[in-house]
Amino acid sequence: MITWLIGENSFEVREALKSIESKFDGSPERIDGTELTLAQLPDLLMGMSLFATERLVVIQDISRNSSMWEKLPEWLPRINDAIHVVFIDTKPDKRTTSYKALKAAASVEEFTPWTDRDTQKAEQWVKARMGQYQLDLDAATASHLVRRVGLDQWRLSQALDTLSLLDTVTIDAIDQIIPASPTENVFQLFETALEGDSRKVSESIATLELTEDPYALFALLSSQALTLATVAYAQEGDNAPKDFAIHPFVASKLGRHAKRLGEHKVASIVELFAKADADLKRSRGEPWLIIEKTLLSI
Question: 30: number of CA atoms within 13 Å, CB side?
């Protein structure tokens, strides 16, 4: 039997592998595919032990080993029926003969990282996961946790492990013990700037400056500015959250700001960010000062 786990969502790949291993009565054999040699293949894919009737062999990243990847189609038909081989690859080249051969021979599962389009899926996953700890999360609390942590399942899982120590999970408890993701911090900063709270903007910049990269943070801020413009210029009947994969909560909050500011002001904000982007690329000033000046000019 051949299983192929593909994708950049390493959390779900790990979960799928754990499920396979839980059904195997024995010790899995884990192989680094990047260091695999042709001489190892006969024993690995065809050999059987006198003391076991079946084997589970997990081969990681064989697609990154060009010589072995090229030879793989020749060996797939030779795999012993008593051996369950699990290939794990992050981003194999779909144009290759080996990709097509392995896809045809294996049971394939693909795992892609979550995006804003998967927000509702993430909220349902959080609620189900907390149920395993015998803790109930209502829809509002689950939504708040996903907004605060982001859509990285590793970070969400770690947050849930922390929250599982509580008797009751509330929004206040989440804010007190779960660190906000960079995206959440940036959204709060951008909203503070839109509200004209210059003192809080400067304080937030001073805090973020200690831990964040200014260029990465500016990229996230620019994304918020473009999202504001998208919401502001949406016409009646448009569905900006769905069409542009905007989180409904973000679309709702920025929509209120866009309505208050008007299209002309929103356009001027986008121009401010375009100028700041040019200044950063041309090193026309200290990055954090450019960012702070831009936000205070909104």
Answer: 4
Pair 171, 141: CB distance under 8 Å: yes
**Whole-number Å distance between alpha carbons of 205 and 192:** 11
Mean pLDDT of the chain: 93
Q: Are 63 and 93 in contact, with CB atoms under 8 Å apart? A: yes
Which one of 155, 177, 199 terminates a domain? 177
Average pLDDT rounded to a whole number, residues 178-207: 91
* Per-residue pLDDT tens digits for 94-122: 999 999 999 999 999 999 999 888 999 99
Q: Whole-angstrom Cα distance, residue 72 to residue 74?
A: 5
Residue 6 confidence (pLDDT) above 80: yes
Verify that 187 and 288 share a domain, yes or no.
yes
Tell me: do 291 and 205 sit in the same domain. Answer: yes
Give the structural domain span for 102: 2-110
